[in-house]
């Protein structure tokens, strides 16, 4: 498939006229071709106008048609697999197996939301029938979730497919019935283009208005910021840095009409190692930890950046396990030169810290590769320096040694909101783990026993979210079927004639949809 | 019941040491006794500390116990009915029947949430069972809604019971398992005290920690603002002015950790009169409109402040109906001197507007009473002056005459987000009403046919909310069973041992709760 290096504005492909940029292959150490040109404000205007024009038709489209749209995108992506693998591995430095796996995940995410649409429970339909003889009479009341309107989605650097152009934010927004304007991440424009064309083509194949989807390229940040400020945009999905997320939140709050921003930002995802678990299988946990930490060169939002344990012999075995795993690893290139530079700098700063030392480290690799490292400090040092709890994006984690449980609890209490919190236990640890689990429950979106946060299952029973600053809105998730809720709002219809109700709220539709009627939950046969 | 005029700090009653204030009886034109003293920052600190300490126990309390708490509050309020009527009528100028009705509503709201707790669907439980043989294996995944933590609630001036100390925000937050710190509205301290004591007593009767509920009095705004800024507070419920709501949003966003603010602010709730309906029953609609507009002296958030109609004979009959209804009305005292003064000033400003005239007006009444008024202008004037679309709190509405449907649509499109939008139709209007209904759907929380927004049903199928600035968060409602969702967030438990799961997520509990398991919705027998 030949790359066109054009912005996708609804059904059209348009050459940008802004700043030019290219991706960089960190694995080969070379600039890629073709050159992409940033969208100008004129293209942004066209994308937003198209989304706005398409919003009503798309909101009123059949769920079955939107399910077909998602299935068609999934199929189109599947057909492009080889091209996607070529470009995505080169643009991200990630290995082929990971890209194939991530593409499969992206496709299954789209299909999950197709299933959500068929099921219909996400509509949360409620009907309270009219009571004309009551004093005062009760009118017919119906509530249904409706789409918010056009959504801006920002592609993430670290998941060129699953959290990017055709990723979870786009899939859930399209499922909700919201047109999407994506601002591609400049680190992987070719992968973005391919995914964007898969969507653009699917929109056409399903006979939907082109404005349902647009894709803008940009080297910088101005067009992305203007997108969030545009009054036609009604919600924002973002996965990226804390600085970027906070900036978008600020823009969204400063609008004449503020809009929700679902920003997934920074997290260090504490892992607590309980003494019984360490005594039983310290080295194994160390091996498993190293595998989780170095997955995707450590460039996961759920990467275990903090390990907390009580002093003792078990910890030594854990460190040995980590070191052993590191020794057998191939150095992996990082996503971009910028991310690699920030990683190296952060790692040096940590290692140079007076109270921190290196407990285990992988051998040095070629340029732009990550060097998996486990640093070590004690609770007192950790609690005395906020900087030690900041995210260091990449394969670097800090092991904090605690003298007793109280100190361990203080370390956990000192943390900001997190995506995940994990605890490794043996049966003998269960009593002591209760208090740890409670702290993690209050500060994270997902509490994990005997596992790590990396590898977020795409499912009904998943939350990929968490209290600020892990995300901007801890009441939501960006992975799993519940993610659709971010782009909906409930509307009440009081005494509205059948023919003017949304199709799913009409009497004829209710028998086929789960709904609550006069206080009772009813499921279709 | 003797008034104590004290702040309720958990189980204790404490004399404030801040600014003194009294309520004013607008019906009798006199200051009331006793004097209340504002809480100081020391009492605020105690209230927040108590709420924080109680949060964990309350979050883990049985749903049945919280249901009992709500039922006990309801019963305690019922036992105080006569005392509440004496004080609330005097503090608000509202008639006895309205106060008795509002108390019944408040009690039924508490009982609604007791039913929500018994039902358990609000937990939105999701279970995806472990798949140990899959590659990679899937761990046991469970999601449940958990309480956000302590909630700050601000009493509204216009509903001294249903949107105040023991109102919908408090009922839904307590149901969710969140401790509540209420900042009473200074216009009705005695009513607030009684409701607060009903809750304080119920908390004790149910053996819950006192910190589950506190009530702070304040003449000014500093303590309320500090309450929203307090890091232990996790969400805010507010009903009041746009200025007040925006200020709280700003404080909440500026915190180290921003929190959600559910502020219900201003709305003018457009009412569209279609030609067929006016021809068929113009005078009747006028009478019904006047009744809705003057309900509670027009001091409803859902008050119909804007009427939009096509020019024609039917409108004349509508105005005649309004005038006829006005002529038969008793002037009603307004809530406070301040509200009355702002109403008079706003009414004068509107009446003095070059393009506006008075179409119908009730006779002048005694001091502090409202003077129901229907003003009239044309679409061109309305569209040319933003000030004409601002809320004027009280019984005053603006009728906007349009020359054609396109102009009528322009008027509707020009409006900000609203709580409700109503359209009055005859069968002959249905085609033309479709476009109107669509505009209202996009800009309001509740679309009403042949009715008015006043009288918000407490039900499953109700939304009392709407796009900004009607509320700060159009994805939620402050009335009805869905209101509980504002104070919850979903948490995922991955591979967590049964004994460490929240009770409702354990296998033993699932059979008695609606939940989604492996993609299938299951209801208890």
Count interface residues per chain for the largest interface. A-B, 73 and 73 residues
Mean of all residue-level pLDDT scores of chain A: 97
Helical proportion of chain A, percent range = 25-40%
Q: What would the CATH topology of the largest domain in chain A be?
A: Aldehyde Dehydrogenase, Chain A, domain 1
Looking at how many chains there are and whether they match, the oligomeric state comes to homodimer
Biggest beta sheet attributes of chain A: 7 strands, mixed
Radius of gyration of chain A: 24 Å
Adjacency order of strands in the biggest sheet of chain A? 2-1-11-10-9-12-13
Protein described:
Two copies of one chain form a homodimer. Chain A has 525 residues and is of the alpha/beta class. The first copy, chain A, has two domains: 18-265 and 475-486, Aldehyde Dehydrogenase, Chain A, domain 1 (3-Layer(aba) Sandwich), CATH 3.40.605; 270-449, Aldehyde Dehydrogenase, Chain A, domain 2 (3-Layer(aba) Sandwich). Chain A has 15 helices and 23 strands. Chain A has helices at residues 41-59, 63-79, 81-92, 96-119, 168-176, 189-205, 222-229, 242-254, 275-294, 313-327, 337-352, 379-384, 405-413, 430-443, 507-510, and strands at residues 7-9, 12-14, 20-21, 24-25, 30-31, 36-37, 125-128, 141-147, 151-154, 180-183, 213-216, 235-239, 261-264, 270-273, 306-310, 357-361, 373-378, 396-402, 418-424, 444-449, 488-494, 515-517, 520-522. A seven-stranded mixed sheet of chain A has the order 2-1-11-10-9-12-13, with helices on both faces. In chain A, helix 2 (63-79) packs antiparallel against helix 4 (96-119) and helix 9 runs parallel beside helix 10 (313-327). The two termini of chain A are 46 Å apart. The mean pLDDT of chain A is 97. At the A-B interface, strand 7, strand 8, helix 14, strand 20 and strand 21 of A face strand 7, strand 8, helix 14, strand 20 and strand 21 of B.
